[in-house]
Amino acid sequence: MSRIARHFNPAFVVAAAILILALPHIAANEYELRLITLLLIYAIIALGLNVLVGLTGLVSLGQAGLYAIGAYTAAIFATRLGVGLVPGLILGMALAGAFGVLLAYPTVRVRGVYLAVVTIAFGIIVENVAIEWDSLTGSWVGISNVPAPTLLGLPLDTNAYFIVVGASALIAFLVNLNLMNSRFGRAMRATAQSEIASRSLGINVAAIRTLAFVVSAMAAGAAGVFYVYLNKYISPDIFSFADSVRFLLMVILGGSGTALGPVVGASIMTYLPEYLQAFGPWQSFAYGLLLLAVMFILPRGIVGSIEVLVSSRMAEARPETGHEERPRLADIVAVNPADGSACLDARGVSVAFGGLVAVDKVDETVDSGKIHALIGPNGAGKSTFLNAISGVYRADSGSITFLGQETTRLNSHQLARLGLARTFQNTELFSEMTVLENVLVAFHKEYRSNFFSTICRLPSFQRDERHFRQAAMALLAYVGLSAYAHEKAENLAFGHQRQLEIARALALSPRLLLLDEPAAGLTHTEIENLIALVRDLAASGITILIVEHHVELIMEISDHVTVLDYGELIASGSASEVQTDPKVIEAYFGSQTFGDGPAPAAGIESGEG
Amino acid sequence: MSAALQYFLAGLGIGGIYALVAIGFHIMWSSAKAVNFAHGDTLMLGAVLTIVFLDHGIAMPLAILLSIGVAIVFGVLLERVAIRPFADHAASIGWMLTTIAIGIMLESYATIEFGAFARPLPSPGVDKPIIIFGAGVFIQELLIPFVAVLIVVLLGLFQRRTQLGRAMRAVAFNRVAAGIVGINVLHVAMFSFALASALGGLAGILVAPVIQASATMGLLLGIKGFAVAIIGGITSAPGVVIAGLLYGIIEKFVDGYISTAAREAVGFSLVIVVLMLFPQGLFGRRELVKV
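The joint structure predicted for all components is written out below.
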């Protein structure tokens, strides 16, 4: 998160409020005040779009459609029923928000460029419905004679209306800012950076995306309502594809994902046409050229690029990594003492990709409180099995029971909430977020404060935030990463990244922790630390299922070893039992006969690792 | 009956254009996992330049070749300037904005030089309509879908039989792996954009006699072509052609039986519905997440 954004405070809000109150008196004339009002309206739409594009990583090229829905709703109600500003706003925002939900629905299944097409299509549909639905929208002629805005029955003059729009823009700014620095904003950024990891941490990705769409749609709707009362006239050509591009451009130009960027972008895009008029017929050519130049010179946008500069200047000296005492896990997160019952039970689980059966009717039970290892040659189906029980893949047949509950058909975020946590073979960290934020994302579901109290910064939010920050710091101390709490995750050394993934998983208070090749790429010392960590986890009552190629590690820590080969379970027992199992030796070495060579058991121990 | 046939044949004509545009998007996407959002303006370039060259007394065949040549240069430059630096990772959206920016510039320049009005491109294909069971249709309109299908067949042969074509398929399948086995991924991308732009220019020249050429003709054709590519499944060339033809036909029927504005609303609603039901498009390949 931007360092600048964190330092906004009440003084800033007061200063902004005074500026808004003073502007009608400073503005040179009516025209200039109108332009600033327009700027603020664009700022509202851009701030909303920032939540979608900057935080959630979803591109909308149909924002003009939502803007139009707000505008037409207000215009129709105002001209036909004489509805005032506030009810108009509520109706416009509600309807736009409802369309936001509708637009979010496809994101469950499509994203990236596919989603861009859905939003483009949406914008064009709205534009054409506005043209076609003559009786309601006046077709090409549009709706004119919009009455002057009234607030609670009192008519607003130009100055008063400006102040209302200004206050709304300030609210939009604060909503955007508070959202960014909250569990919702973190969850949004997490889903943008790694969907699969977000799910594994119990985040309902569809719900978070819907939230982002609704916030951005309501902002666009509100902006549309304000526009109607400013312009007193609307027609379909105000809401074209080019306008959607312009709104997106405001966000990118200012700096997507930053607090001030959308406002800066909206300002530039409002004043730009004034200056571009000097280019006469070359106006739109100059606009295109400018857009291209900005993308080249400031790919992170104006505010984004400044933040990068400032934060590299401000980069604090890294604190020394002192030797920390490992805190007790039970003091940080809830742990349930193991009772020896079955933690996870798989019956006849099969997963196939096309014709390839990666996991073939595997039966296995993982007892609670145990360190259970899953080994096998490359391509044996270990990771697939792990993905099936953690809900990343769905088993084609068979059943999986977790803590006595049938979970075969559950998604990974549902499993995570039941207490099934995991790490990934190729680490899936939220690389653009800090180490601390990575852990905080995993606490998302633990927060008691709701969206409203989060946005308004109510005490319940403050309490939650303080509590979970402490817990996250304690978890970092537990894995030995406190010194790096404010470092970006992508800057961590590889071994530290693996530790962070474990800390993040622990935030779920897991009953079962799946470790997918946690030792891969680690140095000797790091593996020693890992062994100590895994033992401590098991001693705290967390059941561990570990997939690993490092056989020495497996033999040293496992209570139980399961061996897969070509998707089939070929051996299951204690470490020493499977070590001498002829089927296992054959799977690893291709032959049972070793002649005078080293003993098979010794061979398997040094052969892998 | 003759009205329905009329709509069907006219739909094939415009659908063939969507198909040609969509093949271009397919080729670009396969090589770069990014496309030229200003591809519609490549059509405009082909159509408008042909008229400009004809104005200068250049013979039709040469004018067409020259226009396609310019379209190719445009595509190659665009890939180099606006795509390559902005599509370095999967989540990049920079290329959307840079290519839109270039589209805005091109359209604006064309408006200044060519004028803000539409002009017909003369073609023997639109001299007089031929009558089939009471439905009047221009030969040009029948030719377009034929060309689209021919091109997808030729593209398939090219991608199977030639070294360069096989390299294109390899890059589409996995850029990194293709690079590791020694394929020059950047050359393949350059060639792909050249090919896509040539097809775009050709599509513009083919459609201009039917819908007239103007500086702004590209925007909607480009958007629809892209939507068609996505619903057809952008990884499948035959898929996008089928989707293009279908889209054109549906559009003409809505146009004929309801209205022109309803045409866009119904068409784009269909796009959304298809994507909800088939997230990878009708004929697209499903990508599996591996962790």
